[in-house]
UniProtKB/TrEMBL annotation:
Species for this entry: Billgrantia montanilacus
GO molecular function terms attached to this record: RNA binding; rRNA (cytosine-C5-)-methyltransferase activity
Segments passing through the bilayer: none
Gene Ontology biological process terms from the UniProt entry: regulation of DNA-templated transcription; rRNA base methylation
Pfam families: Methyltr_RsmB-F (PF01189), NusB (PF01029), RsmF-B_ferredox (PF22458)
Family: Belongs to the class I-like SAM-binding methyltransferase superfamily. RsmB/NOP family.
Domain named SAM-dependent MTase RsmB/NOP-type: residues: 176-448
EC class (word): transferase
EC number(s) reported in the record: 2.1.1.176
Protein name: 16S rRNA (cytosine(967)-C(5))-methyltransferase
CDD domains: AdoMet_MTases (cd02440)
Catalytic activity: cytidine(967) in 16S rRNA + S-adenosyl-L-methionine = 5-methylcytidine(967) in 16S rRNA + S-adenosyl-L-homocysteine + H(+)
Amino acid sequence: MHRSTPSTRAGKAVQDGGQAVRVSAARALVPVITGKGSLADLDDHQVVTRDRALFKAMCFGVCRTLPRLEALATQLLKTPFKARDADVQALLLLGIHQLLYMRIPAHAAVGETAGAARLLGKEWATKVLNGCLRRLQRESEALQAEVDQDPAVALLHPRWLLKALRQAWPDDWRAIAAANNAPGPMTLRINRRRGDREAYLARLIDSGHEARLCTHSPDGLVLDTPCDVQALPGFAEGDVSVQDEAAQLAAELLGPVLAPRPGGRVLDACCAPGGKAAHLLELFDVDLLALDSDATRLARVEDALARLGLSATLLHADATQRGWWNGTPFDAILLDAPCSGSGVIRRHPDIKRLRRSSDIPKLVELQANLLDNLWPLLRPGGSMVYATCSVLREENDEQIEAFLARTEDAIATTPQEVSWGRRAGAGRQLLPEAENHDGFFYARLKRQG
């Protein structure tokens, strides 16, 4: 028995993938544990098809439980590994994770992980890894009880973030942390141009996928069990996309603005990876300009729109500047602002290592610059929806409060009678919920005149 949190879905019944997949996972994790990279490039690693699910389960699982794994590694090691041996450190974390969180036979978790050091050209480490992991097997309960005395370890979050969550949500911070630690569900958005969700639900069931309707988004469905997107009926044809329910609500907020104005001019600033832009185009007859400062991510938007059979003007540009603007005002602007990502940690668990408390003031400043720069591009009477995937108030309701205070022609029109989220100043805040939506903030603003 152990006192760990539940294992990831992907790791519940995986079979041993041998030493090679563990080496690939260790190499993929080194940039994360050293604070120099993310999990964004996992698909670039060469892993045989049969081992890809195990590879991803290991990488995401280690990041999800990293504070606890590192605390246990410190207890198990007599002396820390040198910086040049970060790959061996990653193997140790992988071994601990397999023993505590994955349904992999203990002999395979220990033997294959220790043996993987040979493939790294570090045979000396096999004995060290083997000794550490066998000690964990013998002393699991005592070691876990000791490290779990630290709330940051027990709740699997960096100390600064736990403090921030507690300050922002004194009654909910533990529930937020628990939701962050569990994998989010696979949520779909049907393309309403190609059918309704009840009909698509029937197609899912016919193809062997159990699912349920989303509570708040009229276009959303939640799968009981995640699957490869290519296994979804009609995915290649553009019938459906993957998008969290909270993210789908942007279109709901812009609906009352766009529906009465066919052909309206809309700006989706910071548009990548394109889910919200696509949703708007599926629902409304609009002239959409999708802008992003990252050319690589903008290419993903182009691919997503092509699969869905949708068209928009794509522009690689910086939304904090105006050199790209042709002077024609927009009827609506969606500003999905860069943020801490504190509401989507369950989908991007490397945030726990890569995000720093010092990042927050810089993000708040960037968000304010974006608001101030884009607001004059809105026609009088037009509306802006400000969104973040954050649960930190300085990025959300406090950001909007400050903007309203300095912007005379801006008023808040966020509907407060909706069933989702909770009132947060002039906006609505959704907190992450297990088996439901991610954490998100929305505020709708109207330009008077």
